[in-house]
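Researcher: I'd like a structural prediction for the single chain below. Treat it as a standalone chain; there are no partners to consider.
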Amino acid sequence: MAHLPAREQDGLLRETARLLMQGAGAGYGKNMVEAAWDSPDFKTLEKLTENVYHFAGAKNFHELRDITDALRDGDRLRSFEEFHGEADKIIGKYNREWLRTEYSQAVAASQAAARWNGFEQNKDGMPFLQYQAIMDVNTRPEHAGLNGIIKRMNDPFWSQYYPPNGYGCRCEAVQMPKSSCRETPDTKITLPPVPEMFKVNFGKQGVAFPQGHPFFKRLPKEQVHLLKERSRMEVRRIIRNAEEFKKLDANTDYKDVKFDFATGGLKATHREHNFDPQKGHYEKDVQNIGYQHGNAVVFGAEKGKGIGIKYTEGTWNYQNFEIRGCETGTAGNIRSGLKHCAIKGDTKIAVLYFPEKNFTQAAFDEGLIKYNGLKTQPGKQYLKFEKIICIQNGEIILEINH
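Model: Treating it as a single chain, here is the predicted structure.
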């Protein structure tokens, strides 16, 4: 995606998706934790989540491509100052102007999906829907012309005209019983044009952003499969964390159990976890930052396994992890931090926390080389980690497979 490293791509995707998922959750009125497993609500929320992540990936692809293209003005390479100005315009367009509209669309489409599920539950006794427009000066003529139309739920009319039927559409469908209404004949309906993106039933499809959206239509073929698979992975991650949240929330051994539907973040702390008297806030900062970025960070118990046992902090995305503060940020400090994490033989993820905000890539690279040199020295403290994560200033600034 426009030559941006994978970690930055992931960060952009999750941040865009987080904001849109907040809208989807607000519109639907519940999340996957609150919906019964495999219920119509759960299935719709699962589809909405996948759709939002797919859309976020497509949007970020186009944004990064536009920023890359801004490096040049025709055949001329722009100066840094020129490029910076052009990039600011692009970022503002994507992440302020358009994002506000997209958020509103996520709310409206999710409301429509929730209402459709409710209609489905009551359709035996109330098989009709009536189109209702807000008849004021702001109503589009096309929508006003649909006001009052009554059709059965299974009529093809609702496959294209179930609201919303455009950005900012305030129309809705109201369910009606057999006894109090009469179906509108097709001969009395003049069907208006609808923007291509909105020629869908958001309720039936369970999407906020249909395939007719320009971001999907202009997506290169080689990116389509990649983004769809990434979206499925994100949904699986969120569902797994939601199910783990339910278990931990019901377990009285754990406290501060929280789950964020918008990011899939999960955190919990075992009551027998021991926070260091001086540096325990490092652990809490790391947990909160990991949680805010959509990770499952659970502090485990540190009692009951025998004298001399060295515990890891707990699990980070279900792998044992250890935290070490790197106050000076030097290469030697970084090597020492990794050595500390290696003391605990079952550590899979080493997390280095920089409380003084002095991380540099050069110092990290040098420190990692020094640490890796230990594996050839008999008796020296070394462990090959699955992953190394560096955190400072509220952000995951580096995440590498080791």
